[in-house]
Amino acid sequence: MTIHRRALAGLVALGSLALSSPLRAQGTGVVVEQPWARAALQGGNGGAFLTLRNTGTAPDRLLSASSPLARTTEIHETVREGEVMRMRPVAAIEIPPGGSVTLRPGGAHVMMTGLSGPLRAGTTVPLTLTFERAGAVEVQVAVQAAGASAPAAGHHAH
Ligand SMILES: [Cu+2]
Question: What InterPro entries has UniProt attached to this entry (predicted)?
Answer without folding.
Answer: LpqE-like, Lxx211020-like, PCuAC_sf
